[in-house]
């Protein structure tokens, strides 16, 4: 229980750590789920075609899928989860870890006429994904990791929004159909 609490505190701290606000875009996608739409907001930042980029980081979504409870990256979850595998590159030498994903992204899903912000299921501390969350990424280096969001249902798409954790300024969003 103490380890699970420590992991939750660490993830909360990472989510509040900080963000940048200048972005450009790139292009890549694959996986079991498909991006169906993309929306860019009227500021200088963007997130589209599965790539988020700012002065400090480039985050590329490599693959997505639905994982059942007990499945990969959802070992302790009690509900199906939307899992995103990604690569994160440190462009500037700023403090950056694979867990920095949480500084930039929120996931939402509609169910019964309302939209809910999705939460991350508990993850055991011994997996590569949780161990890698806090490892520093050096300038010019890339790390791979995964993140999961507990689904409210397995039929409605997931809306992934890139935004500043502090100001809530939106950089863009993509919608992923569940297959």
Summarize the structure in words:
With 179 residues, the protein is mostly beta strands. The protein has a single domain (2-177), classed as Immunoglobulin-like, CATH 2.60.40. The chain is built from 3 helices and 11 strands. The strands form 2 sheets. Strands 1, 3, 4, 5, 6 and 9 form a 6-stranded antiparallel beta sheet that branches. It has a 5-stranded antiparallel beta sheet with strand order 2-11-10-7-8. Strand 10 and strand 11 (170-177) form a beta hairpin. Mean pLDDT is 78; it is low at 1-33 and 39-43. Residues 33-160 form the DUF5067 domain. This is DUF5067 domain-containing protein. Residues 1-17 form the signal peptide. Residues 24-40 have a biased composition (Low complexity).
This entry's quaternary arrangement is single chain
Radius of gyration: 15 Å
Identify the CATH class: Mainly Beta
The dominant shape is globular
The overall pLDDT average reads 78
Question: What is the CA–CA distance across the termini?
Answer: 34 Å
The main β sheet shows up as: 6 strands, antiparallel
The H-and-E topology, N to C, reads as HEEEEEEHEEHEEE
What is the number of E strands? 11
CATH topology value: Immunoglobulin-like
Q: What structural category do the secondary elements indicate?
A: mainly beta
- Quote the beta fraction: 35-45%
Which parts are unreliable, with pLDDT below 50 for 5 consecutive residues or more?
A: 1-33, 39-43
């Amino acid at each position: 229980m103490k380890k699970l609490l420590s992991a939750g505190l660490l993830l909360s701290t990472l989510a509040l750590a900080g963000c940048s606000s200048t972005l450009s875009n790139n292009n890549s996608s694959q996986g079991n789920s498909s991006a169906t739409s993309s929306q860019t907001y009227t500021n200088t930042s963007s997130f589209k075609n599965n790539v988020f980029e700012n002065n400090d980081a480039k985050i590329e979504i490599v693959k997505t899928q639905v994982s059942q409870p007990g499945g990969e990256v959802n070992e302790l979850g009690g509900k199906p989860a939307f899992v995103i595998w990604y690569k994160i590159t440190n462009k500037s030498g700023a403090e950056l870890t694979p867990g920095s994903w949480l500084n930039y992204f929120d996931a939402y899903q509609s169910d019964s006429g309302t939209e809910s912000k999705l939460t991350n299921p508990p993850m055991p501390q011994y997996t590569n994904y949780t161990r890698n969350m806090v490892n520093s990424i050096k300038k010019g280096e890339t790390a791979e990791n995964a993140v999961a969001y507990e689904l409210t249902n397995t039929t409605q798409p997931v809306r992934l929004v890139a935004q500043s954790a502090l100001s809530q300024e939106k950089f863009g969003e993509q919608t992923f159909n569940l297959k």
